Amino acid sequence: MAAQPKQKKLELSELDTLKQRLETLYDDARNNEKILKKFQYLELKLLSCSSLSELIQIITHHSRSTFGWDTLTIILHDEDRKIYKLLKDSGEDPDKQQTLQLLPDISHVKQIYGMNRKPSLGRFDLAKHRTLFLDTQKYPSSIALLPLQRNSRLLGSLNLGSYKPNRFQKGNATDFLQHLAAVLATCLHTAIAHERLKQAGLTDALTGINNRRFFDQRLDEEISRNKRLETSLSCLFIDIDHFKVINDSFGHDVGDDVLKKVAELVRAQIRSIDVVARYGGEEFAILLGQSGESKAVEIAERIRSIIASTQFNSGDVSTNITVSVGVSTINFRDTNNQDPKLIGRQLLQRADKALYQAKQSGRDRVIFLED
Predict the structure, then answer these.
(1) Which part of the chain has CATH 3.30.450.40?
(2) Sequence-ordered list of residues with C-beta below 8 angstroms from that of 30, at least 6 positions apart, any chain
(3) Where are the domain boundaries for CATH 3.30.70.270 in the chain?
(4) Residues near 72 by Cβ (< 8 Å), separated by ≥ 6?
(5) What is the DSSP letter of 91?
(6) Which CATH architecture has domain 28-200?
(7) Residue 152: which residues within 8 A CB-CB, separation 6 or more?
(8) Is position 282 annotated as part of the catalytic site?
(9) Residue 284's closest CA among 263, 303, 270?
(10) β-strands 323-331, 232-240 pairing
(11) Beta-sheet strands, E only, within the chain
């Protein structure tokens, strides 16, 4: 009879253990449900992105804050620098993206993943993983590496890091992370293709620089940006002097080569964030953000000088050319609440008028026209 209380105590102890296990399972289920909802929300944001730059912003900022990742970097294979140009032309400066690496060669990434190309979780190894976290102020203790793969092609890698040694451990379930990597790879592939298609309609086929349509779009953006910063925006109009004579004397093939060389020289004299376009015929236009009169005139004079001192060669033809440049500047501290469209028109009109004065006063010169 004395054994019955012990048996009851044993049964109660087992029951408590089962309750605790059940509560743990419930907690795990609730936690997984929360994580799933976060991943679903992130997935919807990624799928609804309208641009490549927005997609990268969502991953580098939104996802990091949502899931509490301490460090995050993205490596993308950019063999021909087209992704770099796409971002630059959209107004982003890839060189200032601390979490983004655009690399012509990702063989070191391929070596890390090996043949299976599945998410890799575990401890951070300085010798093996430091190239994945170059721009982080502090190296993580544990990492999750997610291959960005599309149709068996490795596009790059999404690299997550935690200062907690046990946050990412080998053997942990990677279903959510693997799904995120697949969605991100698909979105990246689609966004890049979309941006390239869009860019094709905004690029001058002959010179490879932007066309007037692109320039007009960016003018509105640059006005909004510089107005918000209360800085100056300058516009340069550049026209090749006596270009008709070149075509008539040497033929249009030589004229085309001259246009391509001028575009190359102009682009080399400005910053990556500035906007340059073939505005029409033998005329080029430039927008210099956060640049006042003195800086704009300095750049205009540099462009004029380098072109005047360059020998243009095309086949058997060797010739020299000059350009005329009109410059205008608007200081957004003085514009009050003027209509941005009106501001843009006035900026272009003054630059065009300054160019006309440069042509009328002898060519091969820079004229600045004040407001």
Answers:
(1) 28-200
(2) none
(3) 210-368
(4) 59, 60, 63, 64, 99, 158, 159, 160, 161
(5) T
(6) 2-Layer Sandwich (3.30)
(7) none
(8) yes
(9) 263
(10) antiparallel
(11) 71-77, 100-103, 120-123, 142-150, 153-162, 210-211, 232-240, 275-280, 283-289, 312-314, 317-319, 323-331, 366-368
Tokens 């993983």, residue?
A: 129
Query: Pairing mode, if any, of strands 142-150 and 153-162?
Result: antiparallel
DSSP state of 147: E
Residues 155 and 149: their CA atoms lie apart, in Å, by 6
In the chain (371 residues long), the average pLDDT of successive 10-residue segments reads 57 65 60 66 76 84 80 92 84 82 93 88 93 83 93 92 91 78 88 82 91 92 89 96 96 96 96 92 96 95 97 94 97 77 92 97 94 67
* Assigned token pair, 310: 């360059």
Out of 282, 283, 293, 301, the active site residue is 282
Q: What is the pLDDT of residue 6?
A: 59
| pLDDT at residue 288 in the model | 96
Residue 126, CA atoms < 13 Å, CB-side half-sphere: 2
CATH of the domain spanning 210-368, picked from 3.30.70.270, 3.20.20.150, 3.10.20.600, 3.40.50.620: 3.30.70.270
Backbone angles phi, psi at 222, to 5 degrees: -70, -35
d(CA 148, CA 154): 6
Residue 139: Cβ-neighbour burial (10 angstroms; 0-12, 13-18, 19+): middle
